[in-house]
Amino acid sequence: MRGVVGIDCGMSNGSEPGTGSDSGSGGGLAPQSTLIPADFPYRDLFHSLVEELPDAIFIKDLQGRYLFINEAGARYLGKPVEEILGRKDADLMSREEAQNTLEFDRQTLLAGRSLHAEMHEVMAGISREWLSTKGVIRREDGQVVGLFGIARDLSHDRRNEEARRRSEALFRAAASSSFDAFFLLRAEPEQLRLLRLNAHAERLLGGAAADLEGQLLSDVPHVAFIAPRALCDEVWRTGVPHDDEVEQALPGRGRRWFRRQLSAVGDCMAVTVRDITEQRENQMRLRLNERMASIGMLAAGVAHEINNPLAFVSSNLSFIGGELRRMDLSRDDARELMDALHEAREGAERMRLIVQSLRALSRGDPVNTHPLDLHEVLENSVHLAWSRLRSRGRLVRDYGELPQVLGNSVQLAQVFTNLLINAAQALPKQGGEIRLVTHMHGSSQVVVEVRDNGCGIAQENLERVFEPFFTTKPVGEGTGLGLSISHDIIRGLGGSMSVDSVVGQGSIFRVFLPVVDTGPLEKPPHVASLQQFA
């Protein structure tokens, strides 16, 4: 109301101040504290309402004298009601403020209707902001007899708004410096609404705070895990904050682990979410290292225990070979026995290489790589896995022309044997098939595909198949290390592994290995051959 409190417009209704039908001392609305004439329109209704309102309400005559003012208005002027009635604004406030008020009164009387304005002024030594409304009062015959005013103090609301802005700025500054994603949610019937979020929460939700604040949490379904409604209701009911760890698959980010904390604040829920994926992975690596250390110690013991009897076997096989050559046997019998002896020697040699690999594992020796024929390694793997493959279906070989690859035959045999056994375990009871496919990938890598038409891998598990100790097999049937170790072996050889799978249709594991630039090998004789598991 900068400007308007009283004006003498030279008009009079013929009444003098202090001559109302009720007089005397008293409060703002009591009849004895007003100079309003008894025939004033709606006088009784007016009296019954205005003192209940927090706004300043007053009436002036055409000379600018106060005929009525409620207690709220008197407080704003800083004087008792009795000292205000009958006086003009020039008697109650500074000359500048009185002149401004006079101007607003004059404009209202000239307009003959209600006017509204926001203004700032000092009253009773206090700086205030007002929403001021003034209008004319008419008698039943239409003659203007005075004006009324309603002034609402906006200072408190403006201070609250400024405090809110400062609080919000402080919240955003503090929340943005946090390592946690912060959310403030409000309860609505069957829903939760996002009120505030920080920069980390923006990244988790995949959008800007300006676009997301005010939206329902259900509109961002991939982060519904931060505050399940049932969990929020439990926190509101008990008043006890909730703290736990959750695992969640996020679009484009894979499987992540989060530390989640919920605290009730009235009908709102404060939620902090911290990404602890790296911490969990480090813990898993530590446990893996501890278990691998134990496996290494076990491997060293097993290698030592196997090495001595293996030496006996190899020595005796050599002795038997010499004795067979001196014996007088038919050609067919000699050939059959020598073939069996040759296979036994191959098995003993393979065991020796395995023992050597176990010793290297226990000592942490670097892996020796050399050029090798990948198809030969695959055939050795088939022989090693044969006891698990038999009676499960059929094996199809679809080998392409490949150059030699750079690798370690023992480690690769371990990888492909594991893949073949896993494929066999996934096959259906009838019509099972495993297909071994090899072909070039570009000019520098070869690909080995181990395909099966088995049960397949669920989508939620597909990203975890290479994690240490992750297995979907029943307890006692899987350690969760086979694919993890195979994955590490292939990466150590400079290659990579991938998997595609559809539940109910089967899986394809692909192994990519670097080639040796020595020219392509001749096409192997077993291309596209079939072998029935027996």
What do you see in this structure?
It is a single chain. The protein contains 14 helices and 18 strands. The protein is an alpha+beta fold and 534 residues long. The longest helix is centred in the middle third of the chain and has 50 residues, at 277-326. It has four domains: 42-158, 2-Layer Sandwich (Beta-Lactamase), CATH 3.30.450; 176-278, 2-Layer Sandwich (Beta-Lactamase); 280-361, Helix Hairpins; 366-514, Heat Shock Protein 90, CATH 3.30.565. It starts with 42 loop residues before the first helix and ends with a strand.
Count of the separate structural domains: 4
Q: Write the CATH homologous superfamily of the largest domain.
A: Histidine kinase-like ATPase, C-terminal domain
Give the name of the CATH architecture of the largest domain: 2-Layer Sandwich
The separation of the N and C termini measures: 101 Å
**CATH topology annotation of the largest domain:** Heat Shock Protein 90
- The level of helicity is 25-40%
Strand percent estimate: 25-35%
Count of distinct strands: 18
Question: Which CATH class of the largest domain?
Answer: Alpha Beta
Total count of helical runs of at least 4 residues: 14
Structural class, by secondary structure, is alpha+beta
Mean of pLDDT: 78
| Low-confidence region ranges | 1-33, 519-534
Biggest sheet record: 8 strands, mixed
Radius of gyration: 46 Å
